[in-house]
Amino acid sequence: MRPVTPPSAWLRDPPPRPLDPAALGGRVVVVAAHPDDETLGAAGLMRAVHAAGGRLELVVATDGEAAFPDLDGPARTALAATRRRETDDALAALGLAGVPVHRLGMPDSALDADALTAALEPLLRDADAWVAPWTGDPHPDHAAAGHAAAAAAPVTATGWGYPIWMWAWLQADDPSVPWAHARAHHLDDAARAAKRRALDCYASQTGGPEPVVPPEVLAHFGTGTEILFRTPRAGSAPRERFDALYSGDDGDPWATRSSWYERRKRAVLLASLPRERYRHAAEPACGTGALTAELAARCDRLDVSDFSDAAVASARAAGVSAIRAALPDADALPGGLDLAVVSEVLYYLDDAVLAATVDRLADAVVPGGDVVIAHWRGWPAEAPRDADATHRVLLDDPRFVPLVTHVDEDFLLHVLRRA
């Protein structure tokens, strides 16, 4: 058996930020490649989601019949039945006996990500969040389950990956471990005891002379903390999503004209502008145009745009002369700018589009001109990255020199000067 990394090797200072189970939303679907994955990686989180009133469901892709490769056909059938029963017992031990369980019966140790994606799509269709094995876990079935869940999930659902064999087989400094995306769920005494009871239900995996999950591996799941990695979207947020949002009753899905967050952010942004007036500015992704009037008072010329037809209509209804243009198009960022204000949009762009947009900003803004970027410090479900990771892309670019930094619990704002 390969050497097992001890739990102490994974301690981090500072530890990952906490994950709020209530923030996952109303319907949370947990995906497991095998019976026991869900209990090992997310038992405490499942209990907490249920206690917070979430509608929890479990999908188990395989019956785990190949845990012992030398078993013959009848013995594998018997093991599959045992592991299904163990799952029911484990859920009962967690206080989750009524949680719906979808058993897909796919081949163990040969999980096909494409077939699983197709099976998961109807089960994830209305989910607010999904929780699945981490896509980088060094077990191929776990990685396949994580990738399938990410591919099947709707754009509106946040995704979380729980590691299992990572703890035993990788090292804490392994570059594949996405610590920047890590969040911690801490179990209270009652949850820790319930998780121990639930893990005891999986005797087929933890008992016998050669257990699949031996004590030194099981120790990783008794620490009282569950680590999950936020799974980024692979692509940019689709235009259809924003058209749907802006087509709502009042055309203002984020209450930009009335919420204190939006009003305060605009005030901080305007106060952070180093110059009283600008010759030529651009505001791509203008949304409802709530910022536009105040920004226009500081500019001789202001070009305003959004890539959503519905957002453009909302802005025009408020008296803003907006056009439809998508980043990184020159219509959104014309040349000769001495100010570009790019707020609440860059984290929605995939890596390639963000890189092209940064290049366009460098071309469109004249040397000595200013670029303002501002983003909510949460992580929208539709976004490939959060505000911190998004701002780092520009802060690390030598073409832009930081002038103003504002960081608070709600949003991140930088003013950068074009070098």
Any key phrases for this structure?
eight-stranded mixed β-sheet, alpha/beta, 2 domains, Rossmann fold, 419 residues, single chain
Plain-language structure description:
It is a single chain. With 419 residues, the chain is of the alpha/beta class. It folds into 2 domains: 7-230, Rossmann fold (3-Layer(aba) Sandwich), CATH 3.40.50; 239-418, Rossmann fold (3-Layer(aba) Sandwich), CATH 3.40.50. It is 34% helix and 23% strand. It has 14 helices and 15 strands. It has helices at 37-51, 73-93, 113-124, 140-152, 165-169, 189-200, 203-206, 215-218, 239-246, 260-272, 292-296, 309-317, 351-364, 387-395; strands spanning 17-18, 27-32, 55-62, 101-106, 129-133, 158-162, 182-186, 225-230, 278-283, 299-306, 322-324, 337-343, 365-376, 400-407, 411-418. The strands form 2 sheets. It has an 8-stranded mixed beta sheet with strand order 1-7-8-6-5-2-3-4, sandwiched between helices. Strands 11-10-9-12-13-15-14 form a 7-stranded mixed beta sheet, sandwiched between helices. Helix 2 (73-93) packs antiparallel against helix 6 (189-200). The longest helix is centred in the N-terminal third of the chain and has 21 residues, at 73-93. The radius of gyration is 25 Å and the shape is elongated. The N and C termini lie far apart (56 Å).
